[in-house]
Amino acid sequence: MLFTDDIFLRIDRSQAEVARLEAQADNSQSTLVRSFGAAVGIVTRGSSTLMNRVVGIGPDDADLIDVIIEWYKAHDIPPRIDVSPALQSPALTSRLQHHGLANCGMPNWSRRVLAGAPATMFPPVLNVEVCSASADDVERIVSIEDQVWKRPPAALSRRVEQERTKLKLSGFRRYVAKIDGDVVSTGNMHLHDRTAYLNNAATLETYRGKGCQLALLRHRLIEATAAGCDLVHSLVSPDSTSQRNMQRIGLVVACDREIWMPPDWLKHPFYA
Prior knowledge:
By secondary structure, this protein is an alpha+beta fold. The protein folds into two domains: about 5-110 and about 255-260, 3-Layer(aba) Sandwich (Aminopeptidase), CATH 3.40.630; about 115-255, 3-Layer(aba) Sandwich (Aminopeptidase). The chain is built from seven helices and 13 strands. It has helices at about 5-25, 65-75, 90-100, 140-150, 155-165, 210-225, 240-250, and strands at about 30-35, 40-45, 55, 80-85, 100-105, 110-115, 130, 170-180, 180-190, 195-205, 230-235, 250-255, 260. Strands 7-8-9-10-11-6-12 form a seven-stranded mixed beta sheet. The mean pLDDT is about 90.
């Protein structure tokens, strides 16, 4: 696949749409989303500090940076702005630097974009059953995510309700993998503009290495093709297990995003 500016824009807009859906499902109002042109800014005090970021910035959006910075300051959260290198411009770089932001060099953050066409010719993974999640699966899904991601304490009932709301949203799909009838792994897919975004993969530690994520990836590729998608992408930490699984199903590295933030970003408290 040739990664043109249009492809990068579709990838960024797809992830921006996910941010809107996540905020729509958050009835507690702990997550706020604001549009800046086609870009989307996220402020959250309820899930992960890494969600406090802007996605979807393009080469002609330098004039939006001032407004973005002020919005984050109003919420007492330092800004993080993710930029695909192909969508960078001298004017955008200059404006980011004007506000004291620098391109962060932390390699272990979720910054690597993998993408490709949704190929589906993969054999099924033996002994792993994959199906769409139901409302009855939600408490188990939340429990798996809490164990895998070590999320900050929050009311279980609120997270469960949020996940049940997301199951009803157009464009959002949640899947579970089962071994011997038990839900042991989960993954999401968001559909937007013929683009499928694969995210939120989590597997209980005891069941890793048994093919759960490959089975979930295969199933989602089949469903993405059936939904008319011609582009699939995901965001991973460089050289991670997630990256290796994505490459095994045919996705390739599209870019490593620039992550622009204040030098003291990690020193700020993000939760109320």
